[in-house]
Design a protein that fits this description.
Blueprint lengths: L7 H11 L2 H6 L9 H19 L3 H7 L2 E3 L2 E3 L4 H10 L18 H14 L1 H20 L2 H13 L2 E6 L15 E4 L5 E11 L8 E8 L12 E6 L1 E3 L5 E4 L2 E6 L10 E13 L6 H37 L23 H36 L3 H37 L10 H9 L8 H16 L3 H14 L7 H28 L5 H35 L6 H18 L2 H10 L3 H4 L10
Parallel strand pairs: 3-6
Antiparallel strand pairs: 1-2, 4-5, 5-11, 6-7, 7-11, 8-9, 10-11
Helix pairs in contact: 1-10, 3-6, 6-7, 6-9, 6-10, 7-8, 7-9, 9-10, 9-11, 9-12, 10-11, 10-16, 10-17, 11-12, 11-13, 11-16, 13-16, 14-15, 15-16, 16-17, 16-18
């Protein structure tokens, strides 16, 4: 089983040297307490929790899974005690307002913690992770009474939260939601229906679970325009926040899953359950997107978590396992064979994992700064600024969720490959990472759904290519000072400048062709998303390479030359070995729709 070690050096490199988090926090109204000393203490404390408490439960939690009996769900051995430590440490409230018991730090601080927790034990991380979206939804759309009633315990972590969207007949297509909400005389609602695939829907970690549920009011318009959002507690809560009677929501079953088996994925039956409207009637989907954007970024983090975890498992194995001699001659002459790490193809796999984990981390940490600014805009009442930032985040979200989870899955599979036959054996823990990673490309919207959202809603309809022009302008701004430079950073800058132009041309060509071919967006979207992901990650690798090279040139990196050289060399690997994949995706996005659509549906047959 991989022994997780929090990548604090790389995290601090991004925070302090690449993205200048100290200056970022200085500009935030809630950033004053996010001092370097405070952040160091938080990072180290979270690392200790993850390395010593959560990581040791990862393999056993997968083997035991969750158990259900008479509607009550038991989490794997050790989870409840670990969760108690999590609550006692105040970890859930890091980035939530002090008036509800939080520590009031910027949202990005929670991202750093969540990454470490997810890499150590993704199943465990699901429980507090789902609560974050619940809290954000109530913070933004709840009444003052609802905030006072639910937020203190949610922020403390003594209660948990979920989101309940999916039903048997509908997943992404929420227009088909059938769950009903009948108004009662006291202003509450009676909720009836069944929700499936509800992560953390029932468990024994907290005294209460606050479900955020999509349902329809009587006479509501058809489709997504007629969906409302409700707070449905597992245990009813009085006006003082005290627990009362058990509500009419029961776990009917647990899903038998391929991975993340330590996390309870529930079928929830709402039978005359009492619920409370949150937000405006028939505008639940708008409020739910607050939850969804949180969840999608959280799922994007899963991509780098599994890349990091698999890399940390594969690297020591490649150093220790011996097989054959290197093609260029003996490397470990006093041994019967050379270590795997001397073989070029093993290095290719390890470098791919490293490039995905560290490149993805830079992308996530950059967007976390955007989320910080959005939160400040909301709390400061700057609605126009919030909408602008929300639009910018909307461009990033499908790329991060779709691209990073696909790449995280690739990295997890490579970890199994490095181990060879041993990677297939449960005791080593590598196949678990691959199984856990597989779901990331599916939930909170499949890669295809993210791609349609990116190309259809965000790029073509939402901004007419403006969001791409804005990001490529940032790429060009970085590249311009380095275009005539020699060495790896100069080569990267010239490549980025070319890709900036290419991305805009690709977008324009698809936009023009989509006018005549209504199926084009659907056939081109996944290739377009993957192309966008590779190019965006290239920008963030160039940022890291530039900083590493500057540190080496100035002598600041003299104490850690190995770290900075490895950073620069990994960036070179990315540009030479992974970025060229974008060319295939560009060609695929421009390929005729005919090759996808010409086969008659009845000709898809067996034999």
């Amino acid at each position: 089983m991989p022994n997780y070690k929090a990548p604090l050096r790389d995290m601090r490199f991004l925070m302090n040297e690449v993205l200048d988090y100290p200056a970022h926090y200085a500009r935030l109204s809630n950033g004053a307490d996010a001092t370097p000393d405070t952040l160091d203490a938080i990072l180290q404390g979270a690392a200790t929790l993850c390395e010593e408490v959560l990581a040791p439960l990862n393999l056993s939690g997968d083997q035991e899974g969750c158990q259900i009996r008479d509607g009550a769900v038991t989490t794997p051995a050790g989870f409840k005690a670990a969760y108690a430590q999590f609550v006692a440490g105040g970890w859930q409230g890091l980035s939530f307002p002090p008036e509800y018991g939080g520590q009031g730090l910027p949202m990005s601080v929670n991202v750093f913690k969540s990454e470490m927790m997810g890499s150590a034990n993704w199943s465990f991380n699901m429980y507090p992770g789902l609560s974050v979206g619940c809290i954000n939804t109530i913070l933004q759309y709840g009444t003052e009474a609802q905030k006072k009633q639910y937020l203190p315990d949610l922020v403390a972590g003594t209660w948990a939260g979920t989101m309940c969207l999916t039903e048997a007949q509908c997943g992404t297509d929420l227009a088909q939601v059938k769950t009903r909400a009948e108004p009662l005389a006291d202003g509450s609602y009676q909720i009836a229906g069944t929700k499936i695939f509800i992560s953390s829907g029932e468990h024994d970690l907290t005294d209460n679970i606050i479900h955020i549920v999509l349902a329809r009011l009587p006479g509501a318009p058809a489709g997504t325009r007629g969906i409302s959002l409700f707070i449905v507690p597992k245990v009813l809560v009085d006006d003082k926040g005290e627990l009362g009677a058990r509500n009419g929501v029961v776990c009917g079953a647990l899903e038998h899953k391929m991975g993340i088996r330590g996390s309870a994925t529930a079928v929830l039956n709402f039978d005359a359950a009492i619920g409370y409207l949150i937000g405006e009637p028939n505008k639940g989907l708008e409020a739910m997107f607050t939850f969804m954007n949180t969840a999608r970024i959280g799922t994007a983090i899963q991509g780098i978590c599994h890349a990091e975890a698999s890399f940390q498992g594969a690297l020591p194995y490649a150093r220790e396992r011996r097989s054959m001699r290197a093609l260029s001659g003996k490397k470990d002459a006093d041994q019967v064979a050379d270590a795997l790490i001397w073989h070029p193809d093993v290095r290719r796999m390890l470098l791919t994992q490293k490039a995905i984990a560290e490149g993805g981390r830079a992308m996530i940490y950059s967007v976390a700064q955007l989320a910080d600014k959005m939160f400040n805009a909301v709390t400061d009442g700057r609605d126009a600024e919030y909408k602008r930032l929300d639009g910018e985040l909307g461009f990033y979200t499908p790329i991060l969720k779709g691209f990073l989870t696909e790449m995280g899955l690739e990295a997890a599979n490579l970890g199994v490959q490095v181990f060879g036959g041993h990677g297939y054996i449960r005791e080593h823990g590598m196949e678990q990472i691959a199984r856990d990673a597989r779901i990331s490309t599916l939930y909170e919207g499949t890669t295809g759904i993210q791609a349609l959202d990116l190309l259809g809603r965000k790029v073509l309809l939402g901004s007419r290519g403006g969001c791409v022009r804005d990001f490529t302008a940032t790429m060009w701004q970085f590249s311009r000072p380095h275009l005539l430079s020699r060495g790896p950073v100069g080569r990267m800058a010239r490549s980025l400048a070319k890709r900036a132009l290419q991305w805009n041309v690709l977008t324009t060509r698809i936009m023009l062709r989509a006018v005549k071919d209504r199926e084009l967006v659907g056939s081109a979207s996944v290739d377009y998303l993957m192309y966008s992901g590779y190019v965006m990650m290239a920008y963030f690798w160039a940022l890291q390479a530039s900083r590493a090279a500057a540190s080496l040139d100035s002598g600041k990196g003299a104490e850690e030359p190995t770290f900075y050289r490895a950073k620069l060399q990994t960036a070179e690997f990315y540009f030479e070995r992974l970025l060229p994949r974008a060319d295939g995706h560009r060609k695929g996005a421009l390929a005729p729709t005919r090759s996808v659509m010409q086969i008659d549906k009845d000709h898809f047959a067996f034999g």
